[in-house]
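[audit] Reproducing an earlier prediction to check determinism. Same input, same settings, fresh worker. If the tokens differ from the archived copy the diff job will pick it up downstream; this log only records the rerun itself.
[audit] input (699 residues):
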Amino acid sequence: MATAESPAPAASNTKLSAPQKALRKLGLVRDVDLALHLPLRYEDETQLVPLAQVRDGEVAQFEATVVRSDISYRPRRQWVVEVADGEATCTLRFFHFYPNQQKALAVGQRVRVRGEVRGGFLGRQIVHPSYQPAGGALQEALTPVYPTSAGLPQAYLRKAVVSGLSRALKRGAFDETLPPHLQPRGLWPLDQALHFLHHPAPAVSLATLEDRSHPAWQRLKAEELLAQQLSQWQARREREALRAPILQARAGGLPEQLLGVLPFGLTAAQQRVTQEIAQDLARAQPMHRLLQGDVGSGKTVVAAFAAAVAIESGWQCALMAPTEILAEQHFRKLIDWLEPLLASRERSVAWLTGSQRKKDREAMQARIAQGHAALIVGTHAVIQEGVQFARLGLAIIDEQHRFGVAQRLALRRKIGAEAGESEPHLLMMSATPIPRTLAMSVYADLDVSTIDELPPGRTPVTTRVLPETRRDALITRLQAQVAQGRQAYWVCPLIEESEALDLTNATETHAQLCAALPGVSVGLLHSRMPTAEKKAVMAEFVAGRIGVLVSTTVIEVGVDVPNASLMIIEHAERFGLSQLHQLRGRVGRGSAASACVLLYALGEHGRLSETARERLRAMEETQDGFEIARRDLEIRGPGEFLGARQSGAPLLRFADLLHDQDLLAWARELAPRLWQEDPEKAQRHMERWLGGKSDYLKA
């Protein structure tokens, strides 16, 4: 019996045609890939409709005779063909055409035409319809329209899919992997569901096919969700078989000393999650935990506590952040808290980024390799070649979803390669709370700790949404805030003009504000500035010598300036909801009343898109990061929410985590049972659906 790995014939050819290359580009290499390449929509070519019966806006197929064929040059060059079926007429318009097409639609020819019929002052018309000679046999099933790419015509793709499906079914690639007693009631057999979705009968409701509520679709979704859950359970089982160092702090040791020198006490939520992490670190299996908490909830101090436990036990800890600004914020805090305590032990905190001078970086790497550096803080430079840890016991990744999937996998492999006989513990942190449906699915192999309260002293941030026409009044308000000794951020989405996006850039905004705010120090910060210059600007702002900081989103996370009480986000309609919430979190960190103003510009049609309107409404209505995350998931879907686009492969092709929660719950419950009762079928099911993509789920 063939497996899911059986290749489509084109895959074995050394010299591929353009359509075959396009198939590979779409990932359609195996017969199973072709069989699971399901239609986006369907066209009904099973019947002919008299023109007189076609309603405005309807897609229809009819036969008629060409009665006129002319090329017109007003208002632009176009080919105009008039057809009549004896009762009504219709105009066909082509803006791109060739001489051979004109022969096919010459006057007197009888043709079969299909397209969207639009009514109007000049009567019925179709722009760029499909057509063929009249009289051929009608289709017996709905015609599938597949996702495709350049160089891959629908006709070729349909033929390839039909052939791949046929071969896969004959080889048993879609034999049942679910024992009958584990299948939910009402689900179709898999082979029947697949055949139906590629060749649905004309009588079926197009709506149930297109909204994926048809029982055949339900079977495909259930299969896919089960494969995902099986992959997560496999990852969990593999990790439980690994060994990790037992990290335990003695009474009065470094963790207790750290808590004693902090200028604040831990909240109840922070105390709870530090206990959860301490329990994990004390086990001989590697911790694989996600620490989530809203903006400003105090995740850094929890990370410092975990690092202290590792160091107290004689091991090293590495903390990696996605940007230098965020990494440096962590570095400063950890230096303040831990460096005095480590000095007495002749250990230190090391700093490692890609922008360091070679000499400085090599000196840091030597301290890390010799074990003198107990805590290593940096960017992705931490996982680059040349960095050798003496005894890595704990790795902490902040804002892990902002690293590309390939970078996250590289870190995991680097950690494993450094491990020797034991695997380091792994703590991931995120200020973007994970909605429950994602925690159940994409993060099913993680343990999740949640900081669900803010430290005392955080002031609520008032959020207002204003049109850009109020810009001048806003600058007046900004001037008043600065006059009172407060500081403000002004965030822009681009740093240089773009023909595609007519946005005011940060450099221009900086110049405008300098002119509008005489006597006020206005700083500029963007990602293309040299690192030393960025550090100098941030230091001036932190010290209070810059009143207004004009910036791109490099200040999105990590920046902590309690005196900043006003955040203005220009072209807020261009930002994602999570990003807006992160930016808003930069203010409200002190005792002064704080505000966030979302300036928006109307689109080319004089209105906001529905998505932009939903985002801005959500920002006005709630400051709860978990509610923001839930709405973000609804608006964007899980792929973009998780940064999955960076992997080049969507996490789920068919199932929808928002609407298929019953199927998700079923798959989550079934996965461990299937691994226990029939591991061979569990493995086959997972490979059929994921192929080599299961690593991405682990990232």
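[audit] rerun output stored. Observation attached for the diff report: The two ends are 32 Å apart (CA to CA).
[audit] end
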